[in-house]
Amino acid sequence: MKILVATEKPFAAAAVNGIREIAQAGGHEVVLLEKYTSADQLMKAVADADALIVRSDKVTKEVVDAAKSLKIVVRAGAGYDNICLDACTQRGIVVMNTPGQNSNAVAELAIAMMIYMSRNCFTPGTGSEIRGKKVGIQAYGNVGRLVAEKAKAMGMEVMAFDPFVDSSAMEAEGVTPASSIEQMYSSCDFISLHIPATPLTRESIGYDLLTRMPAGGCLVNTARKEVINEAELDKALTDRPDLKYITDIAAVHQAELDEKFGKRVFATPKKMGAETAEANINAGLAAARQIVEFFATGCTRFQVNAKK
Ligand code: 3PG
């Protein structure tokens, strides 16, 4: 089978070599499309592929339509909002992610972002420490759990809100379950977002939640820009000159936010949460193994789309 690895943002070389080794051992061929600049290039490359490995690359309906032989798409990572699941389901194409494989890299970045904002974006002047501060984890999944673990090690108090996780599981890990999302925003110095972008979460973080934060509150977004209501974020930052926002996924209107709020906002130039050699290797190799197993045994563990 032909496995296309299409990564606009390339994997580390070690990950690509590992993917090749796993695929070849399973009797498959790997074709690489890196740093491509248009959807046309992806559509051309995927035309005769049986399997596709992507990162945040957009697998739209047009891409799926162009992929005449495609049987499986694996998103080497957690979020699969970049893939048109309906189009894949219609064609009987299996979509999987590789949950947990790049979580540590993202969690480390979330902690780094808290420190960066506490230290005035590494510019001169008196900053503050994160020890003794309280962080609220919004969604206690793979990344949220790791942020909690690291925050506790830094001497922070940790609260979490996740309607899908039992309070007892949080308590067992030394994390205080929030009784409501409002309570969490009202009592935490930092909020670290780990929710996926879904119709339910889209633009769900706005003025009401943000302005509940205590003085000097900082929102840390290593999740998705789509979960933020940008107009309301702008208004919250305007009305509350003490609030801060740091994100790994630049807002649509990031330039305006930068201009208006200076060092109170920061966006990484390109999403870098999962940009570590370790995360690339973990997620890339997991993707290759899942594809090899799928072709060998039909295993659909980690499938995220509906079956036809
Ligand atoms: C994910 O959903 O796994 C992260 O957002 C990482 O995305 P990336 O592979 O594009 O860096």
What does this structure look like?
The protein has 308 residues and is of the alpha/beta class. It has 12 helices and 12 strands. The chain has helices at 13-25, 39-46, 61-66, 85-91, 103-118, 142-153, 167-172, 181-187, 207-210, 230-239, 254-261, 277-297, and strands at residues 2-7, 29-34, 51-54, 72-75, 94-97, 134-138, 157-161, 176-177, 190-193, 218-221, 244-247, 265-267. Helix 1 (13-25) packs parallel to helix 12 and helix 5 (103-118) packs across helix 6. It has a 7-stranded parallel sheet with strand order 8-7-6-9-10-11-12, with helices on both faces. The chain has a 5-stranded parallel sheet with strand order 2-1-3-4-5, with helices on both faces. The two termini are 22 Å apart. The mean pLDDT is 98. Strand 4 (72-75), helix 4 and strand 5 (94-97) form a beta-alpha-beta unit. The protein is elongated. The structure holds 3-phosphoglyceric acid. The site of 3-phosphoglyceric acid (3PG) has 10 residues, from loops. The site of 3-phosphoglyceric acid has 10 residues, from loops.
The shape is elongated
Largest sheet: 7 strands, parallel
The radius of gyration computed from the alpha-carbon positions, rounded to a whole number of angstroms, is 20 Å
Average predicted local confidence, pLDDT: 98
**Main β-sheet, spatial strand arrangement:** 8-7-6-9-10-11-12
Beta fraction of the residues? Answer: 15-25%
Helix content: 25-40%
- How many helix segments? 12
Uncertain runs: none
| Oligomeric assembly | single chain
Heteromolecules bound: 3-phosphoglyceric acid
Amino- and carboxy-terminal Cα gap: 22 Å
Tell me the total number of β-strands: 12
Structural class by SSE content: alpha/beta
Order of helices and strands: EHEHEHEHEHEHEHEHEHEHEHEH
